[in-house]
Amino acid sequence: VDRLTDKTALVTGSSRGIGRATAVNLAREGALVAVHYTANEEAAQETVALIEKEGGAAFAVRAELGVPGDVHELFLGLEQGLKERIGESRLDILVNNAGVTTTGQSFEELTPEDFDRYMAVNARAPYFIVQRALQLLPDGGRIVNISSGLTRTANPDQLAYAMTKGAVEQLTLHLARHLAPRGITVNTVAPGITNNGGAVFDIPEAVEAMAQLSAFKRVGEADDVADVVTFLATHEARWITGAFVDATGGTLLG
Ligand code: NDP
Q1: Whole-complex ipTM
Q2: How far apart are CA 62 and CA 84, in angstroms?
Q3: Which CATH architecture does the domain made up of 8-249 adopt?
């Protein structure tokens, strides 16, 4: 049976990659999914179409995160979409997935402006999205924050990015305590290298090298991560909160 019938979900950054797979997966379990994006309208509509083709329900919401007014814009679209479809703006499941990755600047090169932008999108936005979402989340709600295996393994070229994800993990830890009285669980899922459809995944030698990092000797697929997120959103995962869930395919085993 569908585990998320009558539930609603927001997956930030679900036009592509892990977010898209998560949106599709949640919808497959019966949830009505808000597919959030910022630039890629066509890709967001494609996610919605994928869901509808399988008989699921979804709608797209645009909002650029990391800029003033971001949360306001996001919730304007979210609440309108929910009200149109279920007559109220209840949000059962929030997945903070949208993120920007550093593009190879070294520790020495990274500017304060770059640093602020990574922080604003990856760490500040999730904080205030949760703050705002609390008005819509019922008791028993679910929050899943997407981090990265990079918080557990040193990679100086991704230092600023890893710092933003360290912040995301703090959001999980402290909010898990704060929201437990309401039966709301808050967990972190940390992917390793995951095929998000980006250009690098079309280069066989690059994929082969990345595959070696996983204990299973392959790169992750978006579904590998989406399945984990979806489980955490179900009733079956009600006893898990504040957890760091390693979804790196054993990359952290060393
Ligand atoms: P992608 O780069 O494939 O997609 C990013 C998504 O986030 C898109 O939907 C994009 O929207 C949205 N987004 C990006 N910036 C903003 C912004 N400023 N405002 C609003 N939306 C934004 O992501 P992945 O699937 O690779 O990654 C998803 C999450 O997983 C991220 O948090 C990432 O850090 C994390 N992760 C990914 C790994 C990987 O190997 N892929 C490894 C470890 C962690 P649009 O399409 O409109 O641009």
Answers
A1: 0.99
A2: 16
A3: 3-Layer(aba) Sandwich (3.40)
pLDDT one-digit tens code per residue, 41-69: 999 999 999 999 999 999 999 999 999 99
Those residues with Cβ within 8 angstroms of residue 237's Cβ, 6 or more apart along the chain or in another chain: 142, 185, 187, 231
- For residue 13, the ligand 1 atom closest to its alpha carbon is 9
Q: What are the domain boundaries of the chain?
A: 8-249
Residue 237, both tokens: 């995962």
Q: pLDDT of 193-221, one tens digit each?
A: 999 999 999 999 999 999 999 999 999 99
Report how far Cα 67 is from the mean position of its chain's Cα atoms. 18
Q: Which residues line ligand 1 (CB under 6 A)?
A: 13-19, 37-40, 43, 64-66, 97-101, 121, 146, 148, 191, 193-194, 196
The answer to whether residue 152 scores a pLDDT higher than 80 is yes
Active site includes 118? no
State the distance from the centre of ligand 1 to the C-alpha of 87, rounded, in angstroms. 30
Average pLDDT estimate for 161-185: 98
Angstrom distances, CA of residue 2 to CA of 26, 29, 49, 243: 10, 4, 20, 24
Phi first, then psi: what are they for 147, rounded to 5°?
A: -105, -135
